[in-house]
């Protein structure tokens, strides 16, 4: 047994600079496929060593912003890239706690009549997760009381994370799949970047660093929760995230059901015997030709996006003369779904986020949060070069999700401290301390996983725009994983108040970062962590 363990340790050392360079050259030579549109972006481990630098976009912000009535015109350029759904702001509700998120899902599963769609990184294996599965079983049982049951339940999870260990997401869902094979679907997305020698050598758990399905969308008939939270007990109890509930918003729900279905179509399908296979006519993600898989997946997913964008554009044109289709419920809020799937050549979220950061003018304040503060170089340049004020909220070491983890993962909070200090030093070097403020989230016995932003314009007290969903503004979110979030632009004062309250409550649990912050004993970063961080920061 000694020899195999030594070999595994050698594999683990692939995260050292020397071995990673050699390993990259080997994987490039044997398993890289040439794609005209993505070029070297497909190099399996090339991002380990460097990140491409992008110049900030030129600003094209509409001049002469005067107030609330211009929110729509100021941000409606997003409709050139993604679908624009107009909804009543009264149907959009911000959820504030893990328990509220959990209870909202359980309640809506129990009353679902036609569809339940759950997209997450994984489903946990504890009693709370089992209760969620039991709710689905009860709903499916009720539906079978009819001779023609209508309820369909669909899961989209990540293959590597959902298959980790003997008792995992797959085994949690197998009983439902075995009992309700005609009503139940479980799709397991597998990144095309994990293939060949790389897939053989990278151990379980670490193989998730190559790329995962990271979308978090939970749909019940015509209602939808968009979040950054996974389906796991900590996200239901003491892991702070963000959650927005869209009630009775059928067109938005249809879009996300179709989006998740499209990703599911190009994913491995779980079978009742726990085997997996691809749907007929689909390319295998790691056994098939990578370029063929990417082209098919991109075509399938962008068909959903483009069809919805054209349809919503036509509906908007038809409604121009009658702004409120319902005289009692004003459609004063716009929902823009933003999808980022760089391994598949889809980068809509990146395009929109860049422009938002670029056009954040001197009349704006942007509150930006990430549970894992590791901005891409482009986003960092846009923040440091903008005219807007920025208030950035990140996790303190004690509320970092990796705090106390065993092995190498236990050093990840130190790496984030190191990255935060580097960013803070850049802010100070540029004399931006009064414009760009860093805050650290603190809460005993909790962890922090919230991400997104709130956009205040014109000196107003309430935000008119928020981004909420799965992206973290880091390299992984932009280049490796499948991500989705929504931009909410609203003129609804009640919804603006909810967004303001959400932002203020999160920041009230924080302290502002200063030079003294990094001199505290718990901010000491070991020398080896400082040396390794530049090599591995694109993987976490």
UniProtKB/TrEMBL annotation:
Keywords: ATP-binding, Lipid biosynthesis, Lipid metabolism, Mitochondrion, Nucleotide-binding, Phospholipid biosynthesis, Phospholipid metabolism, Repeat, Transferase. SUPFAM superfamilies: Phospholipase D/nuclease. Pathway: Phospholipid metabolism; phosphatidylglycerol biosynthesis; phosphatidylglycerol from CDP-diacylglycerol: step 1/2. Residues 209-235 form the PLD phosphodiesterase domain. It is an enzyme of class 2 (transferase). It is found in: Mitochondrion. This is CDP-diacylglycerol--glycerol-3-phosphate 3-phosphatidyltransferase. The gene is LOC107755482.
């Amino acid at each position: 047994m000694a020899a195999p363990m030594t070999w595994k340790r050698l594999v683990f050392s692939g995260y050292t600079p020397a071995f990673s360079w050699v390993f990259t050259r080997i994987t490039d030579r044997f398993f890289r496929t040439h794609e005209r549109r993505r070029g070297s972006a497909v190099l399996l481990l090339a991002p380990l060593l460097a990140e491409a630098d992008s110049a900030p976009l030129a600003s094209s912000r509409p001049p002469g912003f005067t107030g609330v009535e211009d929110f729509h015109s100021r941000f409606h350029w997003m409709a050139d890239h993604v679908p624009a759904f107009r909804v009543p702001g009264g149907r959009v509700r911000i959820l504030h706690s893990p328990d509220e998120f959990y209870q909202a899902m359980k309640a809506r599963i129990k009353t679902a009549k036609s569809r339940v769609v759950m997209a997450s990184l994984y489903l946990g294996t504890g009693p709370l997760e089992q209760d969620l599965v039991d709710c689905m079983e009860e709903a499916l049982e009720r539906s079978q009381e009819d001779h023609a049951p209508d309820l369909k339940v669909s899961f989209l999870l990540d293959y590597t994370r959902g298959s980790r260990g003997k008792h995992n997401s797959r085994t949690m869902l197998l009983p439902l799949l075995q009992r309700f094979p005609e009503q139940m679907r479980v799709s397991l997305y597998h990144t095309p970047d994990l293939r060949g020698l790389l897939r053989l050598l990278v151990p379980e758990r670490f193989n998730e660093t190559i790329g995962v399905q990271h979308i978090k969308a939970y749909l019940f008939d015509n209602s939808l929760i968009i979040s950054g939270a996974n389906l796991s007990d900590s996200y239901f109890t003491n892991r702070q995230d963000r959650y927005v509930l869209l009630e009775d918003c059928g067109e938005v729900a249809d879009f996300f059901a179709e989006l998740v279905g499209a990703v599911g179509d190009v994913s491995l399908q779980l079978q009742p015997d726990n085997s997996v296979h691809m749907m007929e006519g689909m390319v295998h993600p790691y056994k098939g030709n990578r370029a063929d898989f990417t082209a098919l997946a991109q075509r399938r997913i962008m068909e959903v996006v483009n069809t919805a964008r054209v349809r919503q554009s036509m509906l908007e044109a038809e409604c121009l003369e009658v702004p409120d289709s319902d005289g009692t419920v004003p459609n004063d809020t716009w929902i823009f779904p933003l999808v980022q799937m760089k391994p598949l050549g889809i980068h809509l979220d990146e395009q929109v986020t860049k422009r938002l950061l670029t056009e954040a003018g001197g009349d704006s304040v942007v509150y930006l949060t990430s549970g894992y503060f590791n901005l891409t170089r482009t986003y960092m340049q846009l923040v440091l070069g903008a005219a807007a004020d920025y208030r950035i909220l990140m996790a303190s070491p004690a509320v970092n999700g990796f705090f106390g983890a065993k092995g190498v993962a236990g050093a990840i909070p130190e790496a984030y401290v190191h990255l935060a200090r580097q960013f803070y030093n850049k802010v100070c070097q540029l004399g931006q301390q009064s414009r760009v403020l860093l805050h650290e989230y603190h809460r005993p016995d909790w962890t922090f996983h919230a991400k997104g932003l709130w956009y205040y314009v014109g000196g107003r007290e309430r935000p008119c725009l928020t981004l909420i969903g799965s992206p973290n503004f880091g390299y992984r979110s932009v280049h490796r994983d499948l991500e989705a979030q929504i931009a909410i632009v609203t003129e609804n004062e009640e919804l603006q108040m909810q967004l303001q309250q959400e932002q203020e409550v999160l920041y009230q649990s924080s302290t502002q970062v200063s030079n003294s912050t990094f001199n505290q004993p718990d901010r000491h970063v070991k020398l080896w962590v400082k040396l390794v961080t530049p090599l591995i920061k694109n993987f976490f």
